[in-house]
Design a protein that fits this description.
The complex is a heterodimer of chains A (327) and B (135). In chain A, 51% of the residues lie in helices and 14% in strands. Chain A is built from twelve helices and ten strands. Chain B has five helices and five strands. Classes of the chains: A alpha/beta (327), B alpha/beta (135). Bound molecules: cobalamin, guanosine-5'-diphosphate and magnesium ion (MG). Chain B: Keywords: Cobalamin, Cobalt, Isomerase, Metal-binding.
């Protein structure tokens, strides 16, 4: 058995050691990891994918911990990918999400938690997040939860990965909340006002619940009325209702064009990421090294024009070949 | 294009309230370009589980309220059992220097006394990561 198949099989068999190491190689952009991912593909697509986003300090990690406990109580295994920002200065990162999840996962082989640093990626996730989710999916986790960085805005990448995006808000954000309302319909499938144990929660909840948010579906998909819930992650209040709402959304989208559109979007993202990686490694780096680059803009323009022209000619040549064959 | 980063698990007992030292070390390592998973453990097994899932290069344990021997006695076998045999294990905090050698014998690669100038821990990690074994 070659190394790729062996690694893939170990992951599918549930080896935490192999899954952990594979995710590291994905983070490091290693070509051998892509081969393993390809072997894993037939084992992917079974997990329910939940995104958890919202401003820093809203209680996302604590809520994920509560979700772990609730889901485990219902007999479902859980994988978690938690992303924190990298320092733009040193490239290092403090990854603190796991700390909040220790109690609900301790000694439980049904839970796998992995922290990722964003490593400069914008959009609230790490470049490796999409593939890391696949690894946990292939491992056989029933549910995979992804916690975003939580800058609060522009975190649209999560919508491309998760079946259901849970937006966590807290009382007392005032103006920030007003600003976020505009974004809610673009990203949130379920809104939860966390820290219901603290003052102002009821007010914020009522205000949001009165909005009647709706998400418009893709072509042919019916709209989804976004439920607004309240919870206390710390006290485990409202968590069962949250899981029910997430499951309801999952069932709803599964019956409609939503799911097809979502799956297509993920495949598309994967094609672009894979192609992008290989082009950069095997073409761009060499091309850059081979040029003087006194005029980098001009050189790039010229290089890309050449590539497109070459690809156009190849396509035409292939089409001609196919025609001759048919005759 | 190398995107490799040194990843460190920085663990501290949940019941230990001393937080300044670990925060300082965590920032120092981050500023040295490392990715630091900070977390508080209840039982030692949690460190090994976390090290495995996070696939860290270094396990660093902060000991402020004693118990270092017991932690080492449980931690090293727990790591080995899971196949984490190439991880660098270090300890720091308030550990009497007489314990340094016995801890080394248990498999802890290096213990750091308090009051070190900044950069010492990061330099040690950079120099020794990838070369360590838990034989
Ligand atoms: C402040 C302090 C407290 C504060 C903590 C506040 C807080 N939130 O952090 C309070 C008052 C709460 C406290 C409580 C207690 N404390 Co106290 N506390 C101290 C004190 C005075 C300073 C600690 C400190 O913050 N130092 C500053 C930081 C920056 O330094 P540091 O923690 O040593 O960390 C550095 C290094 O050790 C190292 N380091 C630390 N961790 C790691 C990890 C790794 C991997 C590495 C490489 C390096 C490393 O790097 C850091 C930077 O150089 C020390 C005495 C002392 N001088 O050290 C006692 C001390 C640590 N406390 C002690 C004790 C006994 C207690 C109590 C049990 C007291 C009691 N009987 O109630 C309780 C513990 C309660 C509990 N469950 O944890 C003892 C520990 C004795 C021991 N280990 O044998 C000490 C040494 C005092 C003494 N001489 O007796 N304490
Ligand atoms: N009062 C209260 N505090 C909470 C609740 N959930 C989380 N917190 C606290 O909010 C802070 C930030 O939590 P964390 O989960 O790290 O937030 P994140 O940054 O969104 O991941 C922590 O101090 C938590 O203890 C809750 O339901 N009620
Ligand atoms: Mg968090």
């Amino acid at each position: 058995m070659d190394a790729t198949t062996d690694q893939a099989e170990q992951v599918v068999a549930g080896s935490a050691l192999h899954a952990g190491r594979l995710i590291t190689r994905i983070e490091n952009g290693r070509a051998d990891a892509r081969a393993v991912l390809r072997s894993l593909a037939p084992h992917c697509g079974k997990a329910q994918l939940i995104g958890v986003t919202g401003p820093p300090g809203a209680g996302k990690s604590t809520l994920v911990s509560a979700l772990i406990r609730e889901l485990r109580g219902r007999g479902r295994t859980v994988g978690v990918i938690a992303v924190d920002p990298s320092s733009p200065f040193s490239g290092g990162a403090l990854l603190g999400d796991r700390d909040r999840m220790v109690e609900s996962s301790s000694g439980d082989s049904g839970v796998f938690i992995r922290s990722l640093a964003s490593r400069g990626a914008s959009g609230g996730l790490a470049a490796a997040a999409n593939d890391a989710v696949d690894v946990l999916d292939a491992m056989g986790k029933d549910v995979v939860i992804v916690e975003t960085v939580g800058v609060g805005q522009g975190e649209f990448d999560i919508a491309r990965i998760a079946h259901t995006v849970v937006l966590v808000l807290v009382p007392g954000y005032g103006d920030a909340l007003q600003a976020m309302k505009a974004g809610i319909t673009e990203i949130a499938d379920v809104v939860v006002v966390n820290k219901s144990d603290s003052p102002g929660a009821e007010q914020t909840f009522k205000e949001l619940a009165a909005q009647g948010f709706q998400r418009t579906g893709p072509d042919g998909g019916p709209p989804w009325p976004v439920p607004v819930l309240q919870a206390s992650a710390l006290r485990h209040d409202g968590i069962a209702e949250l899981v029910d709402a997430v499951d309801e959304h999952h069932r709803f989208t599964g019956r409609t064009a939503w799911r097809t559109a979502h799956e297509h979007a993920r495949r598309r993202a994967r094609f672009i990421a894979f192609a992008n990686d290989r082009l950069r490694e095997e073409l761009l780096e060499t091309a850059a090294d081979a040029r003087a680059l006194t005029d980098p803009y001009g050189a790039a323009e010229e290089f890309v024009t050449e590539l497109i022209e070459a690809h156009r000619r190849l396509t035409a040549h292939r089409a001609a070949g196919a025609e001759t064959e048919q005759k | 294009m190398s995107q490799e980063r040194i990843k460190v698990l920085l663990a501290k007992k949940k019941i230990d309230v001393h937080g300044r030292g670990t925060k300082l070390i965590a920032r120092e390592l981050r500023d040295a370009g490392m990715e630091v998973v900070y977390f508080r453990f209840g039982v030692v097994e949690e460190i090994a589980e976390a090290a495995l899932q996070e696939d860290v290069d270094v396990v660093a344990v902060s000991i402020m309220t004693s118990g270092q021997m017991q932690v080492a006695r449980e931690l090293i076998p727990a790591l080995k059992e899971r196949g984490m045999t190439d991880v660098l294990v270090i300890m720091g905090g308030i550990i009497p220097e007489v314990d340094f050698e016995p801890l080394r014998e248990l498999g802890v690669h290096r213990c750091f006394p308090p009051g070190l100038p900044g950069g010492v821990v990061a330099d040690y990690i950079r120099e020794n990561v990838g070369t360590a074994t838990l034989a």
